[in-house]
Amino acid sequence: MPRSILIFLAVLSLNSFNVYAGQTGTTRPNLVGDRVNIQRRRIVLVRSPELTRQFPERSRAVVTYPVISGLSDAAVLRRVRSLLKFKNIFDYSLKEYREDAWLSEFSYVVNYNRNYLLDITFRQSGMAAYPDEQSKHFLINLKDGRIVKARDVFEAGKLDSLAALVNAKLQQEIKRIANENRSPNEKELIDGAYDNLKFELTNIDEFSVGPRGITFLYDAGFPHVIKALEPGGRYFFSYAALREYIKRDGLLGQFVD
Predict the structure, then answer these.
(1) Which of 7, 61, 103, 171 has the fewest CB atoms below 10 angstroms from its CB?
(2) pLDDT digits (tens, 9 = 90+) for 2-51
(3) Nearest one of 136, 142, 106, 138 to 34, comparing CA atoms
(4) How is the chain classified by DSSP, letter by letter?
(5) What is the pTM of this model?
(6) Sign of CA dihedral 204, 134, 92, 76
(7) pLDDT on residue 8
(8) What are the phi and psi torsion angles at 57 (to 5°)?
(9) Residue 42: exposed, middle, or buried by beta-carbon count in 10 A (0-12, 13-18, 19+)?
(10) Strands 117-127 and 131-141, how do they pair?
């Protein structure tokens, strides 16, 4: 076959693939079996004329959410899809978001998707009396389709000391924030706000995994007026640093063997 024809066919094939990928938003097909395929679906919610008249700047909202596939075990796939069912995220359906003027944007970020671990964070932002944003994090075991708990991957007898380790980082951050905000107005705003903040055993199930380590998550729940002074709530530890806490027969054991 002439070389010019071969080049033409190769370009045509590549362009066809790019068009397909752009239309579907699908991730690379799962050929390994230790991860899921995620198709990105985008919907624009158009609100009713009655609602738009009251809130003209909130006539639309953009929703982007994942469609999960690619697991060979049908039962596990059903569990994962059930966990990530749209209404399970923030307890609102698409219909309810459309009929309420609060939502501006709903989106998600895939933090990790391999080694039988799916780590995904959903975020929503909107406007009521003031702008607001919430997030919801899921860490899912792709071997059984269930949420990963601390006892699944960390030594049960060391959970208290692990919580204390994370809390030490939280307290360091609180001290830094307080030292950086010493004006009378700032001191008045934050007076007593940090007194009861502590990362405890009840918080230990909130963590995110990545290729280099684990990030423990903590939500201080500050009101809007002092939100800017809230601790970041993300405390990273490498897998090596947590070696003594990680169960060798758990899903995180693969990172410290």
Answers:
(1) 7
(2) 554 444 444 344 343 333 333 334 455 655 689 999 999 999 999 999 99
(3) 142
(4) --HHHHHHHHHHHHHHHHHHHHHH-BPPP--SSSS-EEEEEEEEEE--HHHHHH-GGGSEEEEEEEEEE--S-HHHHHHHHHHT-HHHHHS--HHHHHHSS-EEEEEEEEEEEETTEEEEEEEEEEESSSEEEEEEEEEEETTTTEE--HHHHB-GGGHHHHHHHHHHHHHHHHHHHHHH--SHHHHHHHTTTTTT----GGGTT-EEE-SSEEEEE------GGGGGGS---EEEEETTTTTTTB-TTSGGGGGT-
(5) 0.84
(6) negative
(7) 40
(8) -80, -5
(9) exposed
(10) antiparallel
Token pair of 116, please? 């039988």
Q: Please give the structure tokens belonging to residue 153.
A: 């991957």
Q: Which two tokens stand for residue 191?
A: 């007076």
